[in-house]
Every structure is written in structure tokens, then in C-alpha cells.
Specification:
heterodimer; A: 228 residues; alpha/beta; Rossmann fold; five-stranded parallel β-sheet; 7 helices; 5 strands; B: 295 residues; 2 domains; seven-stranded mixed β-sheet; 22% strand
Chain lengths: 228, 295
């Protein structure tokens, strides 16, 4: 993995992109967790983004993707110059990621509530292929978890004993219905829940490294209300 | 005569057995047909429970990993409830998969309109790249499913309880000529064939048979209809579902087109499918009357 670029470089890349004013908070609140994933956890190779034994990451909360785009560029999945054409005609980087356009993007998302069921399918497919090492990470926002389709997958993953899936909830307290008590909500469905400071890189790394054989893991990256 | 639902179960189970890239995702419906497959191949044949949105999302996950997923439920819960998942997870993402709806327009007549789906075909046609297959016999389900399950396209297969007596050697995008006449062309989709053959007895018309809306045999229909096309389409879904497809066949050519199908209204009555056919004018007598009106 290319680790030459730092998180400061990534934030500079984010600034280089034009626009995304609409989703600035959505982008920034995911930055630390995404950086820890891509810099310390995910086994991926930009030279071979479709490798069978890679880890998979799905940005289910497709809005505010500039942090993901900047990290993918920093890691060498595509040229940093692509960021200059963010949201522009002729560019590859839209306000929601498109797997047919962007190397390293596993799923095209934007409509909320799609990524987690897809991730469950990927996790089942990996098991069907006999691939026991690859992990599937999927990022959902706290408000995205209002969508009922997520709760189908939250029920499904423990029932199917999908220990290879990790749900990352970036909780920036944007949900109108109260979504706190994550341990009670997700734990009640059978998930192993870890709530950590969403800006604490070491705590995020420790939580991401948890993996059970037959129990899915949820990592809640808490971003205090008012912070990004 | 094999029922379409049983044929789907048997063919899919055979595909699971002989192609290790086939994955089946069920949502409690028709699990009896897959008892052996669920036991023999639990990693690739999964009954996830009553969660149709997740069923399609999970199928997309299988497709992203190189499998040929087959998902199935009753038509309203296959085509309508998880519509956005079909559009985004498969259509937009460019993934292949097969979605088998059973129940057709009002096959489960006594269940009420929550279990009717006469809009399924038109909804599926609205997703760019979605193939829409309309078999009229169990053996045709087998042929169409085997022909398409691994072709990399999303495909909706509309199985129905209503069936024709005999099967044709069908292929996606091919129209068969069943009866030749000198007058207009009657084009029957899927399970409407036997009824329109009976209803058109004594009429000097050509009867043609189609089992797919997309792909569609445009050149075949143009050849059958001749230089001055007069075509009456008899379709088992909402009347006019096939109109955009058939209109494209005759782009730039003066043609007389008429469509006979399910009226666009919710059905609040009960009974058997045959009872509802009579109520909406799709039994033999009703078809004969409606056909006479437009010819």
C-alpha cells in the first residue's frame, strides 16, 4: 500500500476539489475513519483493484464522497488531477460515487439504504467462494440508518453468521429520530458493537481489528454534535 | 403440463447443481421447490426471510463477486417492492442477474390487489438494459431461463399460473408464427396465446407469438405484418404495456396498432383467475368481442 501521502495531503486534495459545499460536513466527518481504514486496515492494491483476496469497502452513504475520492487518489487508485474536475462535465467524480467510473469504488451508491444489503451479499459470496480472509467494510451514516432496508440487513447478517462484515457507522448526530444507544440497538440484533471517538485514529484502528468468526462487527465512530 | 412455478424451481435447482456460479436468493417464497438445493448448497442457495429489498441487494453482492444470482418472489414483491434496488443495484451498476416473479397480473385472484401486479412488465421495461421475458408454458420457462441466466444482463422473467397447452421452442427476442391468414396480425404475449387462438377462430388473421418484450423481434414482426401493418397486440399485463416496443417496430411506417390487455384499474373482486379474466374481458368471449371491435 502506498503510504507516502499523509492525512494532511489528503485534506489538501479535498480542498483542491471544486464544490461539495452541500455535503461538506458529510465528507469531513468520515475523513478520519476512512483514513484509518485505507492507511492501516484494508488489504487493497491500487495496481490490482479487483484482486480476489482484497478487502472490500462500500460507501453506502454515498453523499459527501470527497474524503473517499481524496484518499483513493492519495493511495494511487487514480490521478489526483481527477479531483480538479469534481462534479464537472467530463470528469469521473460525481456527488455520489459510480463504480463504473472510479477505480477503487466497489459500489455505486447515493440512494440511502443500499450499501449494507449489498455488503451482506458480498460477504455471503466470499464465503461461497471459500475466501475466508477478505473482510467487507460498509460505511453508513447515522441518519442513513433511518432507512428500513438497512434493518433487513442488520437482521440478516447475524442470522447468516457473517463474521466477515464490519458496519462502520459515522454518527455525526444528523438523524432527527434519536439513533443513540447503538449497543442496545445493534447489539440486540446480534452485532458486536464498538463505540469510539470518530477522530481517534488509534481507537478506530483497534475497533476495526475486531473480528469474530460468526458474528458481525459494528464500529460506531462518534462525531460530537457540532463537530465535523 | 408443467406449471411455470414448478418449472422455474426445477430448472433453477438444476442450474445450481451444474454451475457453481449460480446463486439463489429467496425471501421465503417457493422454498419448497429448493429443499434439496438449500440442503446441498447452503452457501449458494440462501433463504434470507421476508425482506425483498435485501434480497435484491444481496443478489447484487453475489453478482459483484462474479456469481449469476437468481432472486424470486411473487410478482408484486419481486417487481414493485424492491424496485429501486433493481434499478440501482443492478441497472445502474451494470450487473447481471435474474428476477423471477410469479403470479402475473392477478393469478392469485382471491388474494386481492395487494397481490396483483399487472404493472410488472412496464416497470421492468423502464429500467434501461433490463430484459423482460414472458413465457407461456413451463417448458418455455426452462428454455428462457437457461438462455439468459448467465448473459450478464439483468433479466425479469414473468412466470404465471395461466399457461398455454403446448410449448414452443422459444428463444429471447424471437417471434413465432402460429397461424397464417390474409388479414390483420394478432400478436399474443405469453399465456394469452391459447385464448386468442380460440377467440380468433373463423377470422382470416395471422396469429404470432412472443415471449419477450426486451429483447424484441422487431424485424420478425415487421416481416409478418407486411407492407400495410395492422397489428392487434394481446397482452397479459396492463393494456398498452407493449405499446412503446411495438411502436418502435414500425417507426416511420404507417401502421394500425391496437392493444388489448388488463384495464388500468385496481381490481376489488375475488374468485379464480378465470373469473377475473371474464370480469376484465380477457376470457375467450371477451377477447373475441374486443378483437372484433378493433379489427
Amino acid at each position: 500500500m502506498d503510504t507516502r501521502l499523509t492525512l494532511d495531503d489528503v485534506t489538501a486534495l479535498m480542498r483542491s476539489a471544486t464544490g461539495d459545499e452541500k455535503h461538506e460536513e458529510s465528507s469531513t466527518s468520515t475523513l478520519d475513519a476512512l483514513w484509518v481504514l485505507y492507511d492501516r486496515i484494508l488489504r487493497i492494491d491500487p495496481a490490482d483493484p479487483g484482486a480476489e483476496d482484497r478487502d472490500r469497502f462500500i460507501l453506502s452513504k454515498g453523499h459527501g464522497p470527497i474524503a473517499l475520492y481524496a484518499i483513493l487518489a492519495a493511495k494511487g487508485f487514480f490521478p489526483a488531477s481527477w479531483l480538479d474536475a469534481f462534479l464537472q462535465r467530463g470528469g469521473h467524480l460525481g456527488s455520489h460515487p459510480d463504480r463504473t467510473q472510479v477505480p477503487g469504488v466497489e459500489a455505486s451508491t447515493g440512494s440511502l439504504g443500499h450499501g449494507l444489503p449489498i455488503a451482506a451479499g458480498v460477504a455471503l459470496a466470499l464465503r461461497a467462494k471459500g475466501l475466508t480472509e477478505p473482510r467487507v467494510f460498509v460505511l453508513c451514516g447515522d441518519a442513513e440508518l433511518n432507512e428500513g432496508s438497512n434493518w433487513e440487513a442488520i437482521l440478516l447478517a447475524p442470522d447468516q453468521r457473517l463474521g466477515n462484515i464490519t458496519l462502520l457507522v459515522v454518527d455525526n448526530h444528523s438523524s432527527e429520530p434519536d439513533m443513540s444507544q447503538w449497543r442496545k440497538r445493534l447489539g440486540g440484533f446480534g452485532w458486536d458493537v464498538h463505540v469510539v471517538d470518530g477522530h481517534d485514529h488509534d481507537a478506530l484502528e483497534t475497533a476495526f481489528r475486531f473480528r469474530h468468526d460468526e458474528r458481525p462487527t459494528a464500529v460506531v465512530a462518534d462525531i460530537p454534535a457540532g463537530e465535523w | 403440463m408443467r406449471e411455470m412455478r414448478a418449472a422455474f424451481g426445477a430448472t433453477t435447482a438444476d442450474l445450481v447443481e451444474n454451475d457453481d456460479r449460480v446463486a439463489v436468493v429467496l425471501a421465503e417464497i417457493s422454498t419448497d421447490y429448493f429443499a434439496d438445493a438449500l440442503r446441498r448448497h447452503p452457501a449458494r442457495v440462501v433463504n434470507i426471510g421476508i425482506m425483498e429489498q435485501a434480497m435484491v441487494g444481496v443478489a447484487a453482492g453475489f453478482a459483484m463477486e462474479g456469481f449469476h444470482p437468481i432472486a424470486h418472489s411473487l410478482s408484486p414483491f419481486m417487481a414493485e417492492r424492491p424496485y429501486e434496488q433493481l434499478k440501482v443495484d443492478f441497472g445502474y451498476q451494470g450487473l447481471g442477474g435474474t428476477f423471477v416473479g410469479v403470479g402475473g397480473s392477478y393469478d392469485y385472484a382471491a388474494e386481492g390487489a395487494t397481490h396483483h401486479a399487472p404493472a410488472d412488465a412496464s416497470l421492468m421495461l423502464a429500467i434501461p438494459g433490463m430484459e423482460v421475458l414472458v413465457p407461456g408454458h413451463g417448458d418455455e420457462v426452462d428454455r428462457l431461463l437457461r438462455a439468459t441466466y448467465a448473459n450478464g444482463h439483468p433479466t425479469y422473467l414473468r412466470a404465471s399460473v395461466a399457461t398455454n397447452a403446448d410449448a414452443f421452442d422459444v428463444a429471447p427476442g424471437r417471434i413465432e408464427i402460429v397461424r397464417r391468414g390474409a388479414g390483420a396480425t394478432l400478436l399474443a404475449f405469453g399465456p394469452m396465446l391459447d385464448r386468442i387462438l380460440a377467440a380468433s377462430e373463423g377470422f382470416d388473421v395471422t396469429v404470432a407469438y412472443a415471449t419477450s418484450l426486451e429483447p424484441f423481434d422487431h424485424s420478425g414482426l415487421r416481416a409478418i405484418a407486411g407492407a400495410e401493418p395492422r397489428v392487434v397486440v394481446v397482452e397479459p399485463f396492463y393494456q398498452g404495456t407493449s405499446a412503446p416496443v411495438v411502436a418502435e417496430t414500425f417507426r416511420g411506417v404507417p401502421a394500425s396498432l391496437a392493444f388489448i390487455g388488463v384495464p388500468r384499474a385496481f381490481i376489488h373482486g375475488y374468485g379464480t383467475p378465470a373469473d377475473l379474466d371474464a370480469d376484465v374481458g380477457l376470457d375467450v368471449g371477451g377477447l373475441r368481442q374486443r378483437m372484433s371491435n378493433v379489427l
